[in-house]
């Protein structure tokens, strides 16, 4: 099993590519903050301004959350506006050699406490891939996925319990 992750980065346009660099070009599994960014820059990734991730809609969501004293997901459950799609993104892939991969990227919760790390960069919580069974990318409330090791649990139920993907997901959720 190979894995790479980054967290607490705000100057990288595509953190998933940085996570892949960690997996392929370092002896580590996870890097965070400035160290992760400097590693990515040293390997040719472009430095971007954090403002590229800010939109008027997300700023309005932040102001509303602060006013209510709430912490909210990056997707509120409201109907999606096709022009405003954003938030957590997950992908799973199968290559021609039969290798599975999973990736998840997010800006996280709105109005979260500084320093909060969600499930996306935690292997087994927000994402997991195992060539023997399945590739999983989770979106939703990260703390729930972390406590349950949701992505890994789905794979384990398939690998050791003989459950189908649908059955494993139903049991975990």
TrEMBL record:
Q: Where is the active site?
A: 88
**Site annotated as Cleavage: where?**
87-88
GO BP field: proteolysis
**Quick one: which residues bind substrate?**
116-119, 139-142
Enumerate the Pfam families for this protein. Answer: Asparaginase_2
The answer to whether UniProt assigns keyword Hydrolase to this entry is yes
Q: Which domain of life is it from?
A: Bacteria
UniProt keywords (A-Z) are: Autocatalytic cleavage, Hydrolase, Protease
Q: Does the keyword Protease apply?
A: yes
UniProt-recorded Gene Ontology molecular function terms: hydrolase activity, acting on carbon-nitrogen (but not peptide) bonds, in linear amides; peptidase activity
What is the recorded name of this protein?
Isoaspartyl peptidase
Supply the source organism for this entry.
Escherichia coli
């Amino acid at each position: 099993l190979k894995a790479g992750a980054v967290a607490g980065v705000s100057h990288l346009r595509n953190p998933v590519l940085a996570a892949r660099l960690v997996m392929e070009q370092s002896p580590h599994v996870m890097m965070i903050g400035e160290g992760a960014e400097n590693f990515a820059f040293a390997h040719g990734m472009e430095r971007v301004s954090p403002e590229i991730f800010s939109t008027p809609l997300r700023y309005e969501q932040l102001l509303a959350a602060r006013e209510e004293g709430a912490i909210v997901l990056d997707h509120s459950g409201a109907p999606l506006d096709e022009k405003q799609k954003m938030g957590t993104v997950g992908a799973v892939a199968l290559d021609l050699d039969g290798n599975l991969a999973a990736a998840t990227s997010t800006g996280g919760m709105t109005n979260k406490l500084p320093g909060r790390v969600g499930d996306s960069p935690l292997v087994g919580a927000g994402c997991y891939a195992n060539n023997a069974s399945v590739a999983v990318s989770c979106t939703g409330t990260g703390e729930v996925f972390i406590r349950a090791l949701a992505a890994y649990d789905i794979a384990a139920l398939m690998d050791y319990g003989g459950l189908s993907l649908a059955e494993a997901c139903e049991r975990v959720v």
